[in-house]
Each structure stands twice: as C-alpha cells, then as structure tokens.
# Entry
Amino acid sequence: MKNQLIKYISILLFIIVGCVLIAKTMTGSQTVAQYAASHPSVVTPTVVVEIEVIPAVTDEEKDIQQSGQNATVETQPSKPKTTSAVQRSGQDATDVIQQDGKEADADGVETVSVENSFYIETISDELKEYMAGKSYADNIDESIMNYDMLRLVVICYNDLEGNTARGEIVCNEMIAQDLLEIFEELYYAGYQFEEVALIDKYDADDDASMEANNTSCFNYRVVDNTTKLSYHAYGLAIDINPFYNPYVQFRNGEDYICPTASAPYADRSMDFPYKIDENDLCYKLFKEHGFSWGGAWNSCKDYQHFEKRLR
# Structure
C-alpha cells in the first residue's frame, strides 16, 4: 500500500515538473504571470465590437434634405378652377391649369392633376352674367329654356399636342351625366380635342367657334337659313372637333360647306386625323348613350354634330 502511494506521488511530481518546463520554454525568461500580462489575447479572448460612426449633419445639409422631402409632397385642390373664370379673365386656359392642381414630373415639367376634375355644377351667377346676351340670347324663350334647365360640365381633355387641358361644356341637365361619362372615357382613351370651351368665348358666333375647332354645346340659336330652333338651343346637341368634321349640304347645284375653310375635310373617303366616322370611338360612345349623329343624315351631313332627342 505504501509503495503504491509513493508511485502516485512520483507520477504527480513528474507531471508538475513537466508543466513547469513547458511553461518555461513558452515564456522564455518570463514568469507565467509576466507572460499573461504581455500576451492578453492568448490568455483572455478578445471581443471585437464594430461601432458605426455617423458624421454630424451641417445646417446646409439639413436644408437640402428638408427641401428634397418637400419636393415629393403632392397637394390636390379641393376643386379645380373652371375655364369659365379663365375665359372671362382673358387668360389662356393652360396658364390657369398650371396654377391649380399642378404636379411636377422628374424633369420638373408641370402637369395637370385630373383628380376631381370631372364634375357637374348648376349655373352660377358669375356664369349667368358671362353667358347673358351671347349663348343665353336676349330673345330666349325662358318657358322652354332657362338657366335652371342648364348645367356646367367640367372635364379634362387631351389637346392636339397630347397635353392635358381643362374644358367646360354648358348643356341641358338631361344630358349632363351622359357628357360627363363620354368625355371622361374619351380622356382616358387618349382622344384629342383642339379646344373645349363655352361658345361665349366667341360671342356665340357659331362660325368663329367652328373655325377655331372648338367643341361646344349650348347656344340659343336657330338652324342655319331657317327660323327653327336648333337642338343647340335646348342644350341637347354638341359639335365635336368641327373644323375637321364640317357641315356639308348640296345647295343650288354645289356643295355648301361650313366652315368654308374645312372644304378639304368634306371628302370623307380620305383618311385624316380627328375624323369622325362609324369606326371612331367618339361616335361609338355617343351612340351608346342614345345620341344620333349628323353624319348619318340624308338631306345634309353634319359630321361634327351629335344630338339627343328627348321629345
């Protein structure tokens, strides 16, 4: 038993001496404590923490960041300005559109917001004053037509350059919803008009309005060369892009074309822009809403003309 204990002690001493020699070899002349102090990464694990340093923002940079944020904010008007106010002020419709409901594209070019831009209104006192003595003629028979029977339809349309413009139409209240739906569908289909403005802009002169290729509806007047009231007098007819879709009638052995400068467009066998025929989207939409087309008449051809007969 004694010999076995001596054996165990000898083995333990041998192990201790061996560890001392190994440590001495690693540390050279240093003690273990000295080696640990000079080599902390060996004795103690090192934890590396990466800290992202955010540079301070200057006042100038703050201003730039703030202006950039403001540039992305879009504001929408509660209701866009109508072109009746534009026409009375003598301004160009496009100018006022850019003052109201404007947005900027990536190039900084102003564009028109069409949100809430299709709606119907009763005739305001301001508009009554503007129409009086023109489309609302002094001799109007108010038993058959008056302001209470009329409505202002405000729309957006694509002009001939493909830009969005603001337009308006005064019409009979019975077709106001029809026109609103038709022109909204035409707008989103990319259909183009040169102008959609009240004929009062041309002092209710139908020839002047047609020569300007203006699309218009209500005008208390008689049919040309008759004493019969036109459907325009009831606000139940509208002329679409009239310069390219003239009125044509055979009179005294020759064609009568109105407006006269539209003679090249009286030949409907030709193909040209803004031509209304039975394949045209405008024609199809008006027919769907129960309108008849003057281009289908026998005694004359009024290619610009759509009317809805309620009586």
